[in-house]
Amino acid sequence: MKPFAYVNPANEKDAVAALSPDYEKTLPIGGGQDLLARMKDYVTQPDRLVNVKNLDATVTRVNGGLKIGSAMRMVDVAEHPEIARMYPAVAAAAIEVGTPQIRNQGTVGGNINQRPRCWYFRNEEFVCYKKGGNRCFSPQGENQFHAIFGDGPSYIVHPSSLAVPFVAYDATFRLLGRKGERMVKAADYFTMPTKENVERENVLAPDELLTHVILPAPGNVKSGHYEVRYKASHDWPIAFATVLLSMNGSTVQGARIVMGAVAPVPWRSQDAEKALAGKAVTPQTAAAAADAALAGAQPMSQNAYKVQVAKTAVERAILQAAGLPIV
Ligand SMILES: Cc1cc2nc3c(=O)[nH]c(=O)nc-3n(C[C@H](O)[C@H](O)[C@H](O)COP(=O)(O)OP(=O)(O)OC[C@H]3O[C@@H](n4cnc5c(N)ncnc54)[C@H](O)[C@@H]3O)c2cc1C
After folding, report:
1. Which of 211, 220, 288, 307 has the fewest CB atoms found within 10 Å of its own CB?
2. Residues in the ligand 1 pocket, defined by CB under 6 Å
3. Cβ–Cβ contacts within 10 Å for residue 287, how many?
4. How far apart are CA 307 and CA 322, in angstroms?
5. Widest Cα–Cα separation across the chain
6. 107 CA to centre of ligand 1 in angstroms
7. Which residues of the chain have pLDDT under 70?
8. H or E stretch at 102
9. How far is the CA of 303 from the centre of ligand 1 (A)?
10. Distance between CA atoms of 238 and 204, rounded to whole angstroms?
11. Distance separating alpha carbons of residues 149 and 296, to the nearest angstrom
């Protein structure tokens, strides 16, 4: 590993002051589980790490919602009674992340900002778009875990489990830089790869930190969160979905349906939401909405199976949200 300096600021202001405006020269470090692995693999080689575990790690009430500090560990998110009561899909996502050790060490800020798990990106020998190269290796290569939505030019899937319910609940991220703070909706934080912006997954500037996730008052929504994995633990999901339903009696008034592990960003399906609106949830309407969610999928040579997996995740999350048995 390349030698690096380590800064241990006491607060967010000092942490921001220790960051550089050049990409990847300095990097914040939370639990270090993603960053240190990338450094050991020579994928990322910063000159300086800035510890951000001294940032806010608490949950506070704000305007009927909750404000979560980015230094909070995932285990604490999973076990927080107010998060579980008000935003059950966030707690459900946190509790399924990785393993107990990963949840004990990993932070909310690190989870949201972790880099893609693509095996080409993680291998120093493959200089792909994400590392300044001129191609994505997955379309002609091993692509069984890659994107089925988005149409490139990079086909990574976003690796964060928490990002998906945060988009579904319409969370806002507080970012802090030298020029002050800015508030960005979770849905606008994550960016699709374009030729001009293929190396990054979000709008965070190199000298900014994500300090808080602000969840609005949840209202009277029912939620479902369903993940499909090869293994029950120690793995990322193949596909998953968060579903929020606002009900008028037994009729769906409005829905938010967001899928994970299918695209370079948390992938919201307004077609699926429209398919459910004005209907009662039944196994048939849930299946029709799931069909609508996956209608535009464009799988590659080895990942067509993900279409059915994602469909099942959406369908089951809808049934779960409606309190119906999973069939
Ligand atoms: C076997 C295995 C299974 C896993 N399964 C899952 C899973 O199912 N779902 C899932 O979501 N994850 C999964 N993970 C990934 C794991 O959850 C992440 O590595 C972890 O959440 C990262 O958190 P951290 O605090 O350790 O991040 P770090 O490694 O400290 O940081 C990650 C990145 O975020 C940046 N960063 C950290 N904090 C901030 C901040 N406040 N502001 C801006 N940037 C910041 C860092 O610079 C770095 O680039 C798994 C990991 C392993 C090893």
Report:
1. 220
2. 27-35, 52, 70, 97-98, 102, 105-107, 109-111, 113-115, 159-161, 204, 209-210, 234-237
3. 17
4. 23
5. 61
6. 7
7. none
8. helix 100-105
9. 25
10. 26
11. 7
